[in-house]
Write a structure and sequence with these properties.
single chain; 3 domains; five-stranded mixed beta barrel; 11 helices
């Protein structure tokens, strides 16, 4: 049996508790919350070590090019990227990865890891994973439990069979899963030395996991198997068949099989870990100063205590005076101010914003595309001003619009522009007009980013006013395709 461990990175979540930085269109795993790399990149780098294979990534269609771009900056090519037609929680996602690996490498060891966790000591965590390999190869489903440092009510817990004083990385049978507790129960579990936080990280063979689904969730197994069998390749991505996938239950792997299986073991991990499940967690894991203050970006704290001030816009200066236990997050299009003790209630605000059809509830101001990104600078009734950044060698689709004309001004680099049958180059400070209905394309033939200011005018300026004729990224019609 092979001893190579195959990481499976799950990155389909929306992270609404970290709104307004994390939104449906660009969730937290792709943001640099605690360092220079995104959480997804840090998760992938964690397993770029001997004994680990290239990762299998499970994500949504809108993030597929972000996944490959961010992995590319690490010099890492994924084993495969599975595209979920819709999110169906971790049971379906993990099983799809298992079936894909099992078809290629029967009995492969797979390590399931959410891509939005913070684990500062990569080497220590890898050592814990390696220590769990014999247990997984013996037929056990191994879950990783984190040594708790507080009576946390926001996590599920794991009860050990035997108490442990040092939480050494030695696997033992798992007695039971514990749902998110009340405060008194959490304090009792913290004190007894036989409970760990449930990290949602697993190690098992593909064969054993598939067998568990066959026993405890056979309908889910049938549906996921049909989706994997009916999958098709799309520019190197594997799109799961939507017909059977859409009918799958929205259920976690814990509920589907783990809480029912008898062959469960737990591997304690005594190092630092966080799921960054809210702004209080970001504050805690960002090394507050002696007064408990964390600032990020152009932010200033005056006479503040136990406070997080974070500005994500270079042109927006955030200043806090005399604040205590406050979270303040400033984005170009939205600001969050909350008592730190209410940080988990951010999801309530997102729900209300969605109900009011406020675009900031789900849409990020910077829209990432396979060719680069754009952001809206100014929006009026019949006009919009955008900044567009196109990566070297990248090209937008050949397209037209029914409702808008566009004015382009190149401010950095060189643009290759097609309008109907005419092709020309634009350099810095040159501009061009794209009439309504004209078939056009924008490309970057250079070796540095091309930056363009676009002024749109017309009766309707929505991103879905795009008719694609050709596209190097094989996107369909619609805003993103």
């Amino acid at each position: 049996m092979t001893t190579t461990i195959h990481p499976v990175l799950l990155c389909g979540g929306s992270g609404t508790r970290l709104w307004p930085l994390s939104r449906k269109s660009f969730p937290k795993q792709f943001s640099a919350l605690t360092g220079d790399e995104s959480l997804f990149q840090a998760s992938a780098r964690r397993f770029m070590a001997p004994g680990f294979g290239a990762p299998v990534v499970v994500s949504g269609s809108d993030f597929r090019f972000i996944v490959t771009e961010q992995l590319g900056t690490l010099g890492l090519a994924p084993r495969c990227v599975l595209i979920e037609p819709v999110g169906r929680n971790t049971a379906a996602a993990v099983l799809a990865a298992a079936l894909r690996l099992e078809a290629e490498l029967p009995g492969a060891l797979m390590l399931v890891a959410p891509s939005d966790h913070v684990i500062p000591d990569d080497a220590r965590f890898r050592a814990a994973v390696m220590s769990a390999v014999p247990t997984a190869q013996s037929g056990q489903l191994v879950t990783f439990g984190i040594k708790p440092d507080r009576a946390e009510t926001g996590y599920g817990w794991l009860q050990l069979t035997d108490p442990t004083d040092d939480f050494a990385p030695v696997a033992q049978p798992l007695k039971r899963f514990v749902e998110k507790p009340d405060q008194a129960t959490a304090e009792a579990m913290l004190a007894d030395g036989r409970h760990l936080w449930n990290a949602g990280i697993f190690l098992f063979t593909t064969t054993d996991l598939i067998a568990a689904f066959a026993q405890f969730a056979p309908a889910t197994l049938d549906g996921v198997r049909a989706a994997v069998t009916g999958a098709h390749l799309d520019l190197g991505f594997t799109r799961l068949d939507p017909a059977p996938w859409n009918d799958l239950p929205d259920i976690s792997i814990d509920y589907a099989v783990m809480e029912k299986a008898q062959n469960l073991s737990v591997m304690p991990y005594g190092g630092i870990w966080s799921d960054l499940g809210g702004w209080e967690a970001v504050w805690r894991d960002s090394a507050p100063d002696a007064t408990g203050v964390v600032t990020h970006g152009p932010a200033m704290a005056i006479d503040c205590t136990d406070t997080l001030l974070r500005s994500e816009s270079g042109g927006l200066r955030l200043v806090g005076i005399g604040l205590d236990n406050i979270v303040a997050i400033a984005m170009p299009d939205a600001v969050l101010i909350a008592d730190k003790s209410r940080a988990q209630d951010v999801k309530i605000a997102v729900t209300r914003l969605k109900a009011d059809k406020v675009p900031q509830a789900e849409t990020f101001p910077r829209d990432h595309r396979p060719w680069g990104w754009f952001e809206s600078l100014v929006m009026g009734n019949r006009f919009q001003v955008k900044r567009i950044v196109v990566h070297p060698g990248a090209a937008l689709s050949l397209q037209s619009h029914h409702h808008r004309a566009e004015h382009w001004i190149v401010v950095e680099g060189t643009a290759k522009v097609t309008i109907d049958k005419e092709v020309r180059l634009l350099t810095e400070n040159q501009s061009l007009y794209i009439p309504l209905g004209a078939v056009h394309r924008l490309e970057n033939p250079g070796k540095v980013n091309m930056v363009l200011i676009e002024v749109q005018t017309g009766a309707y300026l929505g991103e879905d006013d795009i008719v694609r004729y050709e596209d190097v990224y094989a996107r369909s019609q619609g805003a993103k395709g």
